[in-house]
Amino acid sequence: MVTAAARILAPTPAENSGEVEGIRLEVGDVSHAFAFEGKPLPVLNHVSFSAAPGEFVALLGPSGCGKSTLLRLVAGLDHPNTGRVTADGADIGTPDPSRILVFQDPTLYPWRTVEANVSLGLEARGILKAERHRVAQALALVGLSGFESAYPRQLSGGMAQRVALARALVNEPRLLLLDEPLGKLDSLTRITMQGELLKLWQRARFTALLVTHDVEEALFLAERVIVFSDRPARIAADVKVDVPYPRHRGDPRLAELRHHLLHLLGLDETW
Ligand SMILES: Nc1ncnc2c1ncn2[C@@H]1O[C@H](COP(=O)(O)OP(=O)(O)O)[C@@H](O)[C@H]1O
Ligand SMILES: [Mg+2]
């Protein structure tokens, strides 16, 4: 077990590979509601699951069912009405750089260069001077070496999302929370980035929680797919993707699992 202090002092994601240990995540009987027009709007309904250290879990469910809400609870940006969310057994109370959330929209600061955008987390923690080398390493990991001085307006959508990933990786997260991170990309860029995301995970070994509404993306990337019902989300199924990496998109077992997942989502007639 690498302690937090050791992790901050530890050299780099690349040199560290295999050393940074993913978080063990437990979501225990979590229910959550928002107030909407004076009435409670139930969003999560007795949701329980866990993710082992270093596991890649996809969360799949209909639009508006509560997936982003769940990620916000795990990130510590919100607190569940009932139930517990723990990281390595400790309650998640506040956001922490060991748990990083990446959104669909890369949300880069337009007036900052790529390098300055990626530096943000280290700057905020007051460790940029000592840890500046991590910025170059994170940019190398996402294939953006040479673009340090570019501005966001000079980047394609895929490159901007790579910057957002580098900005997360620079913190050496132990839990990476991905909220439809590839959702706005064109399909070719999306397929390329899925492969890159997989390599990043295999290299850095963080625990990954990926929200997606794309069944194929979930099956290409994740070791397990948790399927949610319509809002209020409850777990409809927890499906192991028993296909070793590297996966081939045309694998017949993946096609079988795709059919199964579409059925669980109530969409099998379209298959
Ligand atoms: N802060 C909020 N206040 C009130 N309602 C919210 C808030 N955040 C989300 N909701 C509602 O909760 C439901 C689930 O939202 P969300 O978690 O974003 O769904 P998903 O990510 O699965 O599409 C939606 O009906 C949404 O309108
Ligand atoms: Mg969402």
Shape summary: globular
Please give the number of β-strands: 10
**Mind telling me which CATH architecture of the largest domain this is?**
3-Layer(aba) Sandwich
Strand order in space, largest sheet: 6-7-8-3-9-10
Radius of gyration: 18 Å
The span between the termini is: 45 Å
The percent range for strand residues is 15-25%
The CATH topology of the largest domain is what? Rossmann fold
Q: Hetero groups bound? A: adenosine-5'-diphosphate, magnesium ion
Structurally, the number of domains stands at 2
Order of helices and strands: HHEEEHEEEHHHHEHEHEEH
In helices, the fraction of residues equals 25-40%
What do the pLDDT scores average to?
91
Query: Which ranges are low-confidence, i.e. pLDDT below 50, for 5 or more consecutive residues?
Result: 1-18
The CATH class of the largest domain turns out to be Alpha Beta
Largest sheet: 6 strands, mixed
Strand-pairing-aware structural class: alpha/beta
CATH H-level superfamily of the largest domain? P-loop containing nucleotide triphosphate hydrolases
Quaternary form? single chain
Domain ABC transporter: 25-255
Family: Belongs to the ABC transporter superfamily.
GO molecular function: ATP binding; ATP hydrolysis activity
Organism: Azorhizobium oxalatiphilum
